[in-house]
Amino acid sequence: MTTMQYNFKKITTVPTAKDFIDVVLSRTQRQTPTVVHRGYAITRIRQFYMRKVKYTQTSWNEKLSKILEDFPRVDDIHPFYSDLLNVLYDKDHYKLALGQLNTAKNIIDKIAKDYVKLLKYGDSLYRCKQLKRAALGRMCTIMKKHAASLAYLEQVRQHMSRLPSIDPNTRTILVCGYPNVGKSSFMNKVTRADVEVQPYAFTTKSIYVGHTDYKYLRWQVLDTPGILDRPLEERNTIEMQSITAMAHLRAVVLYIVDASEQCGYTIKQQADLFHSIKPLFANKPLVIAVNKVDVRKLEDLKPEDAALIAGMRAAVRGPAALTLGEEEELPCMSTLSEEGVMEVKRVCCDKLLAARVEQKLASRRAGEVLNRLHVAQPKPRDNISRPAVIPHSVAINKAKKASGELKVVTEKMLQEENGGAGVYNADLRKNYLLDNDDWKYDIMPEIYNGKNVADFIDPEIDERLAELEREEEELEAKFQEDKAAAEMEMEPDLDDEEKELLGQVRARRAKLVSEHRRKKSVANNVPTMRRDRTSDPERRLTTTRMKESLGAMGIDTTLAVARARSASAVREGRKRSRSLAGNGGDEDVDAMDADGEEQPRVHSSKSRSVSVARRTSKSKGAGLRDESEKMRAQKLADKAQRKMNKRAKTGEADRVIITKMPKHLFSGKRGNGKTDRR
Fold it and tell me: Which of 222, 405, 473, 499 could staple 400 via S-S, CB 3.0–4.6 A?
């Protein structure tokens, strides 16, 4: 049988008969069309109801097949699990319940097939509807009759999901013995399992699994319930689990004997139990361990008790198990003080490993593997002795190192001398083996298209490039000077003032031409630049230049200069106290003027949000005449925005149209799990 891990936790939940019917019928209602009219063609009406019958039959078939596949078949699983199912759930009852579900599935398939044939000859909407109703009703009636089987299988599934995951073919230590002799305590010491330990019998009522490591291998430790010495037919379900494990699992059996008799059973009773279940140990390694030696040592036993333990040890030496060596003593331990626990584990693991190796070597497959292996043995080619040779220079350096004449400087020493770890950078090129040591620190060639890039680079390329740029600037400046001189020579009758004015006109003309070309290149789509330092890096747009240019035309610029200076931003640091707000230098609502008089409230929808002044605040409404104009403009803006606010619009540019009826919510049939909006 192939090695496999049984996992009964993945078995599908078995619903009750009522829930089963509700699930299938509601799924049919959701997944098939629901509208049919009397005016439809009779073929269309037949197909409508035939589809419902077929879909219902398919749903029953899928769900019942899933249940039958998930539950293990008694004849196909390991004998250990087969007998365990028989002990826990009664094999006949289990097989009968699965057989009834299989029969119900076949009957439902037959009913669907028969009623589909009848629907093919339905001559009216009413007759087809009644045939469909009869078909679905008979299917539901069949499942109602099997309500008891479904309830039984759900109880079995719940119990099986709580069973430990036991691998019947792996390396296993099976702990057995009378109740309360220390089986669970031993398992808690050698594994990470946490089995309940109490000072009364039958604390452990089922098989527990733990895992431990030995010689880099994973071992499975099984703690079985206690067994009493009585006939097999009188043993209860708890004891039969232990019997099943000992009968079918390939494991080393550890039989624990309580030497102190604190478990409530004498050594004679424990020996009688051992001899009664000894046939279950056939062809298995067997270890007898004496527990609770901290209370009563092996030497303190009565002669008759010592003879009984010796008789059990003699059975261990029989042909049914591997033989203990004469020099090896009987394993003794105390699970309370942990004395000898690891030694018992070692003995069990070694005996099982030896038994598994012997079993594999005795099989035919081992011989086939050995026949394919060949171990080569080296043979001397002659009789000449060839001892190891150490070069003379190596021997000299070794002697110098021993005497201290030759000091080897390691990278660790260099690192400590040059700043330590994180500062020192190891020189990886000093040990390069090259024909010339001067080549070690040469720049590595960079190859491109099979050629060395360094061969095509002038070492003085940076100086040459700077020289070319400098020469180009000089030629360009000289060309501009020659051009200006030539233009001046074309007007010999002009004096110096007229020549200066002509130069300004030509500069203005060149600026207009360049601006026109720029706008034309971007199709007059250039954004308007802000009039701040970022848009005027050369500081040409100043009040001084405005005063000079407009004054030359005879225009008085006193008021314009004063207005520009009053609207300029004040460069101040942020203050912790209330400072000037950003709206044209006005103070906050709660502020006072310089004379201590309260100022009237300035209308603004954001008046409370500017209580702390910005560093580079710009006054809004700089193109308006005074504060009253600014306030009036703000009122008009707020009034225009009210209508937008009622329509939940951010402004005039908000063109969002909210979907009135989303299509995914108001069309089509609901799928699985979509009934929450009924």
Answer: 405
- Whether the per-residue pLDDT at 328 is higher than 60: the answer is no
Residue showing tokens 């029989």: 318
Contacts of 109 (CB under 8 A, 6+ apart): 57, 61
Question: String of b and e for 530-566 (b: at least 16 CB within 10 Å)?
Answer: eeeeeeeeeeeeeeeeebeeeeeeeeebeeeeeeeee
Edge-to-edge strands, sheet with 217-223: 208-214, 217-223, 172-176, 252-258, 286-291
What's the one-letter identity of residue 522? V
**Cα–Cα dist 66/58, whole Å:** 12
Who has greater pLDDT, 350 or 675?
A: 350
Distance separating the N- and C-terminal Cα atoms of the chain: 54
The tokens describing 633, both together, are 């403009």
Q: What is the pLDDT of residues 276-289, one digit of tens each?
A: 888 888 788 888 88
**Residue 80: strand pairing partners:** none
Dihedral pair phi/psi, residue 182, rounded to 5°:
110, 20
- Two structure tokens written together for 150: 């479904």
Q: What is the pLDDT of residues 154-163, one digit of tens each?
A: 988 888 887 7
Q: Is the pLDDT of residue 116 over 90?
A: yes
Q: Judge contact between 224 and 175, C-beta under 8 A.
A: yes
Q: Which amino acid is located at 311 in the chain? A: G
**Which of helix, strand or coil describes residue 210?**
strand
Cut 0.85: pTM above it: no
Q: Average pLDDT over the chain, rounded to whole?
A: 80
Q: Could you read off the pLDDT of 625-660 as tens digits, one per residue?
A: 888 888 888 898 888 888 888 888 887 788 887 777
Token pair of 388 as six digits = 């190891």
Residues in the chain: 678
Q: Where are the alpha helices (DSSP H) in 253-372?
A: 267-276, 303-316, 341-362, 364-371
| Single-letter code of the amino acid located at 594 | A
